Amino acid sequence: MSRVIVFIYGLISYAVGLGGLVCFILFISSWEFIPFHIDTGTPSSITYAILINVGLIVLFGLQHSIMARTSFKNTWIKVISPAAERSTYVLFTGVIMGLFCLYWQPLHGVLWQVENEVGQIALEIGFIFGWALVVLSSFLINHFELFGLQQVYFNLMKKTEPPPLFMDRFLYKIVRHPLQLGVLIGLWLTPTMSMTHLMLSSVMSIYVFIGLYFEEKDLVKNLGENYSRYKKRVPMIIPFLK
Q1: Which of 126, 137, 113, 108 is nearest to 199 (CA)?
Q2: CA-CA distance, 135 to 169, in Å (whole number)?
Q3: Per the count of CB atoms within 10 A, which of 35, 98, 177, 201 is most buried?
């Protein structure tokens, strides 16, 4: 693949990945003016709903698990440019996020519904804070490398990518994984926790902690003693919890 094509592919993948994330955030929000809101659908057969939802969950899990494996990456870069490997991961993630918004099935029932106006506003502010934390954290750890743009840009300019650096600054002095903390906050802070929303939040939360387990192992392997000392000093996900 030519460097220009790889770069254009990276830009498209970035747009799809970021667009899928934005759609997902709007989908699970409590803002009723969103036309594809998670609670706007009419529940049908519970069997059908669970089958579809479980299918989406399995698809998400398989995509993230398989495409994150070193063996898959080594095989995949024989087909495409190594610089486009991360962009492909971002592209598929964005598409699957879009599928969640389009096909996640509603379920009957509500776990909680906050009627107090002050409580509603507080939860909505917390929701916004959670996803803002995700965005901010992505820039602290290198947003453009995370979404594949850095790789295709350096490939276009015929430059060598810099090695990964470990820097415990700002939010990373409080928790080791502020990005995942933001995701958890965004998933759970809502004035109305329907069973539809509960199923999605529960599954995504489980996946976050499974992902953190393997990510921590990779970080210790790649960063060595620096990260081991960091683990002893800074809590993983809950601030100020030793």
Answers
A1: 108
A2: 16
A3: 177
Q: Mapping DSSP to helix (H, G, I), strand (E, B) and coil, where does residue 194 land? A: strand
Number of independent structural domains in the chain:
1
Dihedrals phi, psi of 236, to nearest 5 degrees: -70, -55
What is the arithmetic mean of pLDDT over 151-158?
A: 92
Coil, strand, or helix at residue 113?
Answer: strand
Residue 238 lies in a domain: no
Residue 239 covered by a domain? no
Greatest distance between any 2 Cα atoms in the chain:
58
DSSP assignments along 190-201, one per residue: -SEEEHHHHHHH
Separation CA 110–CA 165 (nearest Å): 45
Parent domain of 16: 3-233
7 touches 155 (CB < 8 A):
yes
Contacts of 65 (CB under 8 A, 6+ apart): none
101, part of any domain: yes
Q: What percent of the chain has pLDDT over 90?
A: 62
What is the pLDDT averaged over residues 222-239? Answer: 87
Distance CA 13, CA 9 (A): 6
* DSSP-based three-state secondary structure for 84: helix
The count of residues in the chain is 242
